[in-house]
Specification:
about 0% strand; mainly alpha
Length: about 180
């Protein structure tokens, strides 16, 4: 099921893996979104080489989404990105599995534009679960590893953010302040 371990497609997936883990380790929402944009571009190359056009379109829209979310919280931008994802899904989807990355991208759009902190990361967690299923179906070694690690890293980061918030509420100093 998985193609060659060191094929160009898989190597692009490994680079996306590094960028993705780096993004979810960030406590800064801005750094998180910038690294995520880099991961998405690399992911698009990876899925193009694997021949998964819905994943390519989804990750390209996700790149645009990550960059735009740095500058605006406009609900019109959210509507545009959701409509773009759905339109690309109607064009490229060949079955229900094809909708997994598109649904994950829609969930990520809502998370990045309408939420922050733990809530944003919790919704991104749902998207990661959908990506795991897509990546297994696509034969993506790096992508599957990426999303499984992101699930763990994201949960760890959410706990760290909650602990920092609890310390701040108790009046204790938060590391990095």
């Amino acid at each position: 099921m998985f193609s060659e371990i060191f094929s160009p497609a898989q190597c692009a997936g490994y680079i996306a893996f590094v960028l993705g883990v780096g993004s979810f380790l960030q406590r800064s929402d801005k750094a998180f979104k910038i690294l995520m944009a880099g991961e998405c571009i690399t992911y698009a190359v990876h899925f193009a080489l694997l021949g998964n056009m819905t994943a390519v379109s989804s990750t390209l829209v996700s790149t645009l989404r990550s960059v735009l979310s740095l500058y605006t919280r406009s609900r019109w931008v959210v509507v545009f990105i959701l409509a773009l994802n759905i339109g690309l899904g109607l064009k490229f989807a060949t079955g229900w599995i094809s909708w997994l990355p598109l649904t994950a991208s829609c969930i990520g759009t809502i998370a990045l534009f309408m939420l922050n902190g733990v809530a944003m990361r919790a919704l991104m967690l749902v998207g990661s679960i959908l990506w795991v299923a897509n990546n297994i179906a696509s034969g993506s070694i790096g992508g599957t590893a990426l999303e499984l690690v992101l699930i763990v890293v994201n949960i760890f980061t959410m706990f760290r953010l909650q602990a920092e918030k609890a310390r701040a509420l108790r009046g204790q100093s938060v590391p990095g302040e």
